[in-house]
């Protein structure tokens, strides 16, 4: 009688593939991003519910009309935040290039694009710091709203409370992403990924950075455009 030998399939918890045919660490990153998306979603839904349940709301064209060097006299609605958004989008492009370079095992290109991504993240944070400082100088902060509603009536502090909370939460994510990319840069320079034979960690960091950029699109739409 012939005997058959069963071939054991690789176990995903023992270093093989996950049930979704995705590398385990990348799968965990997707789980984390999904949970983080729920948090941002809750914030934005609460903001939208409060805004459209309120009779009046400040006009973003009047609130966000300043930019550095002409903060007191500028009247350029949304120009500065558009520059911030452009910087973040460009940093997402350089992150894509870093991931692609990692797939091709091109260390030099990975280093260059990670540096550009870090610079973009720091530039965005610098712009946000200036915006917060300027708004605080005008009297805006948690519990304080100097901006009237678009119809001229007095506004509640809901606008500033939501603005500083949500943009601050997003800014913390950008800061975290910059730190992660700095760590990835150091590991690249130390040939950690070359020794491993892959740059998979760069791809995971890229997922996080693209998520941060995508969330900003919703934050930008809710606060600055609508």
Task: Describe the overall structure.
The chain is mostly helical and 226 residues long. It has a single domain, classed as Up-down Bundle (Four Helix Bundle (Hemerythrin (Met), subunit A)). The chain has 7 helices and no strands. Helix 1 (24-52) packs antiparallel against helix 5 (158-189). The termini are far apart.
CATH architecture: Up-down Bundle
C-alpha geometry = elongated
Might you state the CATH topology name?
Four Helix Bundle (Hemerythrin (Met), subunit A)
The Rg value, from CA coordinates, equals: 22 Å
Question: How many structural domains does the protein architecture include?
Answer: 1
Cα(first) to Cα(last) distance is: 77 Å
Features:
226 residues; mainly alpha; Four Helix Bundle (Hemerythrin (Met), subunit A); elongated; disordered N terminus
SSE blueprint:
Elements: H1 24-52, H2 60-63, H3 79-103, H4 107-137, H5 158-189, H6 192-196, H7 200-225
Helix pairs in contact: 1-5, 1-7, 3-4, 3-7, 4-5, 5-7
